[in-house]
Amino acid sequence: MTGDDLDAVAEAERRIYAFPWTRGNFADSLAAGHDTWLAQEHGQMTGYAVMMQVLDEAHLLNITVLPELQRGGRGSALLMHLFDQARAQAVTRMLLEVRPGNLGGQALYRRHGFAEIGRRRDYYPAHEGREDAIVMARDL
Q1: Given 11, 48, 57, 97, which residue is catalytic?
Q2: Contact predicate 38/50, CB 8 Å
Q3: pTM here?
Q4: Of residues 17, 57, 68, 109, which has the active-site annotation?
């Protein structure tokens, strides 16, 4: 992902999520040097991901496959790419947060070896205040 991709990524994010990352959130991730990827097929965006490395841990901040392309293995492929990239940087553990209601995301993460290790209270914005996050991790 580059700065040239930010408008398309932000537009996709707004289309997909009730509480999307803003264009500024993605721009800040690029400026901070986080690892960012744009998944494409035939020149068209299929998804994107943002990952932050701290020492030997990676924190998966955002992984998204466009809704019309979900359930076709693209999320697994993108996640496997992130594992490979993280291992290449000597990362030994990956962490992420997921909404309790995101059952599809939780299933994807469990299929790839993530396990719940805790909760972050009031982590996500919600229609009625805030929502907790499930914290998941896996060794690489």
Answers
A1: 97
A2: no
A3: 0.92
A4: 109
